Give the backbone structure.
Amino acid sequence: MPSPVSQHPLSDAPAGAARPWRLVMEMALGAVALLGLLVLMGLLTSRAGAGVSPWVATLALASYLGMATLLWRALRRGSWPQAGLGPANRITLARAVLVALLAGALADPELLAAQGEWLFVLALVALTLDGVDGWVARRTGSASALGALFDMELDAFFLLVLCLALLQLDRVGPWVLAIGAMRYAFVAASWVWPWLAADLPESFRRKAVCVWQVAALMLALLPATPDMLAGWLVATALAGLAGSFAVDVRWLSRHR
């Protein structure tokens, strides 16, 4: 379970005068990049006799706009950063573009099945960028809780998308959704028991479990992975995640 403790800043420059137009342009460039990737995917899949359906493009754009809207609302509650999102969070936004593209593919199960290797590569790039933005943030020597939240919520959505893809491909049973839903169930539980919303200390265990979840789900998505092995990989990811949540809930309970 990702920690609410800051991992990288929402802005790599001090907050100051309102510059919302910079943020609008950066988010708009993300949408343009997503459209470009959709066109490229359409060209690649059309050669194989498939193509990208309008539903794929619609769901991908809706996913990106939803993430951008949530980020915008979070920014409005604070101070507008002078330098826009900053380098670390621009990388996170680029990762959001890739995750939105993967989410769009859920609208076409045939595309998921036919282009499994390409989608795996996209997911691998998104996973790699998850480490790159943290490295860039450490190089800047600054951090913010809001920037960490952006990264954490994107991780949670990424996991949910991978779980839904596995379910659509019938690689594993509906129980795989427990991985994607656990973070959201935890947040819902914190509305009933507010002590669950307290900050958690940094934990290598939590980060390792998060990386293994994504890696296991991605490997399970590969067409070359046997169904039995795919089920085993996902089961280990679920077991690790459940154990990590149990440890964190116990810690929060003791420190409320």
